[in-house]
Known about the structure:
It contains 4 helices and 2 strands; from the N terminus they run ββαααα. The protein has 155 residues and is mainly α. It has a two-stranded antiparallel sheet with strand order 1-2. The longest helix has 40 residues, at 47-86. Mean pLDDT is 77; it is low at 126-134 and 148-155.
Amino acid sequence: MAPATWHYPAGTAHEQTIPVPAGSRRGDTVRAWVDDHGDAAPAPPTTSDIAVNTIGLDADALCGIALAADALLFVRLRILDAQRALVPYPVANPDEVEVLRAAWGFQPLETYIEHVAAGAGRTGPGGSQRARIGSAMSRRRAAASGSGRACPAAR
Length: 155
């Protein structure tokens, strides 16, 4: 750095400290960059500076696109997982549903939907057994709580 004097614009004198090449002596002429007002300014970027900045911005954009694509893929896979959780058995042919229901001892799907819509509740196998088991357990709890002893079936 060294003090320098120049005349720009239109003969206006300016004096500032500017960077100078090593080995410069007092009175040597050096090239300096100035702005429109004649004040010292940094040199414009070189071709290599522009290339490096462009490559850096391109890499940043590519990373941003990759992250956005990854986020979209993650969301889509979560949606697919949630949808698959709603369908426990993949059935390619809708006719196979009735075959599977019959094999498992369920009534036809249309009949089940009609019963549910009518408020009849679950009418598949084990429906009445669950009601009987539930009422028997309720009686045992009532008996156990009234006498203060353990349920006889639990012994």
